[in-house]
Amino acid sequence: MRRLRRAAVAVVVLLIAGTLCAGLAYELALPSVSGAEARVAAIVRAHHGEIGTLPASSRLASAVVAVEDDRFYSNTLVNVLYGVARATISTLHNSGDAGGSTIAQQLAKQLYGGGGGLKASLEEMAVGVKLSTGYSRAKVLNMYLNAVYYGNGYWGDVEAARGYFGVAPARLSWAEAAMLAGLLQAPSGYDPLRHFTLAKQRQLHVLDRLVADHRLTSAQRTAAYSAHLPLRGA
Q1: 149 DSSP β-pair partners
Q2: pLDDT value at position 83?
Q3: Contact present, 108 and 127 (Cβ < 8 Å)
Q4: Domain 151-234 classified CATH 3.30.420.40?
Q5: Which residue in 46, 27, 29 sits closest to 38, CA to CA?
Q6: Could you tell me if 176 and 161 are in contact, meaning their C-beta atoms sit under 8 angstroms apart?
Q7: Cis omega (within 30 of 0) on the bond before 55?
Q8: d(CA 68, CA 225)
Q9: What's 69-148's CATH class?
Q10: Phi, psi of 114 (to 5 degrees)
């Protein structure tokens, strides 16, 4: 029995060591993320935008985290496991294309992605881990807000805030921040200039998530949802 136990322990150790080595080899084969900020800058320049600097707009940042990745500030391992679970569920519902789940994974997809399916999603998760461990949370979030598309030709939070509301990101109201955060899932589908009713429904969902995240009270959510939106071009 002692020999069997030793053999079992040896097998387990070998399996763990093999898994770790395989994981390390896979991680090393992925793109380096040292140039992530340069890639973000290239995206912004290509669309004639302006790069937002740290700190990101607190209201927009809070709204995006609440609706896109409410465990963003958790331990990296916890956040990764959460992202894997969300991606797995998405895979089951979308015929194998999980897409990006956490903010870091979505940033990885934006900067390094190419293709769909489970393999691409796994690579995005791994690159997302590199981004999460290589940069501060504030930097990852700032890069994400700068690199994503908000519809109507607006890339990055600076152009989106100015284009839709005529203000800098730091001056966004909760109503405006929730509207912009809601666009990221489907910029065309929730376009407030063409589909205002759908955009308002999405805005309310973001505000609800902010209440769940204890960023807003119920009264503040109601006030923000009822507030006038000075949309330019509407």
Answers
A1: 155
A2: 55
A3: yes
A4: no
A5: 46
A6: yes
A7: yes
A8: 19
A9: mainly alpha
A10: -170, 100
Pick from 111, 61, 107: which is nearest to 83 by CA?
A: 107
Give the span between the Cα atoms of 104 and 15, in whole angstroms. Answer: 29
What the block records as the tokens of 20 is 């770790």
This prediction has a pTM of 0.79
Q: What is the pLDDT, as a whole number, of residue 84? A: 55
Whole-number pLDDT of residue 141 = 95
Contact 182, 205 (CB under 8 A): yes
- Measured CA to CA, the distance from residue 206 to residue 83 in angstroms comes to 19
Question: What parts of the chain have a pLDDT lower than 50?
Answer: 17-26, 28, 95-100
Nearest to 144, CA basis, from 100, 91, 174: 100
Cα(213)–Cα(210) distance, rounded to whole angstroms? 5
E-strand ranges in the chain read: none
Distance, CA of 128 to CA of 85 (rounded, Å): 15
